[in-house]
Amino acid sequence: MKRLFLLLFMFCIASARADYVKLNETEQKEFLSSLQTSLEGIKRLAGKFTQERHLSLFTDPLMAKGVCFFEYPSKLRWEIYGPYQSILIYNGRGVAKFDADEKGLLRKLNLGGSDILMEILSQITAWMKGDFSKSGDVYALSVLKGEKDNLLVLTPKSEEMLKNIKAIELSARKDTNRISSVTIRESKEDFIKISFYDEKINPEIPAVVFDLSKPEKAPHF
Hints:
Layout: H1 2-16, E1 21-22, H2 25-38, E2 44-54, E3 62-71, E4 75-82, E5 86-90, E6 95-100, E7 106-108, H3 114-128, E8 139-145, E9 149-156, H4 159-162, E10 167-173, E11 179-185, E12 191-201
Antiparallel strand pairs: 1-8, 2-3, 2-12, 3-4, 4-5, 5-6, 6-7, 8-9, 9-10, 10-11, 11-12
C-alpha cells in the first residue's frame, strides 16, 4: 500500500512537471557547476517571502509573510511577521527560535532535536550558495529544465524521512540562477510553497540580526 501511494504521488508530480525536461547526468553536472559559479558573488542576501501552506483539510491555504537574511558562509535568519511573529536564527554554530507574546515581546523557545534542525539549516545555507555537493547522502537530486525556470528536485533517500517529506522543489530563475521559490511536498495534497521577492544583493546586515541570545529587530529594506 505504501509503495502504491508513493507511485501515485510521483505520477501526480510528474504530470505537474510536463513542461519540464529532465537533464541527463552530464547536463546536470554542468548546470550545477554554472549555478554555483553564478552565485559566488553573493555574500549577503535579504528578501521578503510569502508562505502558503496547503492542507487537504482546508479549502483555502494558510498564508504567512516574512523576511529572510543570509550571510556567507552559514548565517540565516528566517522571520515571519504576519499573521504571527516567529524568528529562527542559525549562525553555523547554533540555532535559536523566538516567538512574540501578546505585547510583542520576544521569548526564546526551548528547541528539542536541535542537532537535526542544525543539519537541515546547514543544508539550506549550502543550497543558497548553489552548493549541492553534500546533499547526495540524504537526497536524490534531479534537475528539470523549463522555459522560464529550472527545477531542482530533492527526494529523500531514507524511508523514515519520506514519511514526512516526499520531495523538496527549488525553482531557480533562468536569468539570475537565484532561487525564486521552494515547495516542500508532504503528501499528494499537502505542501508548503515559499515564494521570494524584493531581494537585495549584498546589503549591509547588522551582526545583531543573527544574535542567538537577543536578536534585534530586522532592518527595513
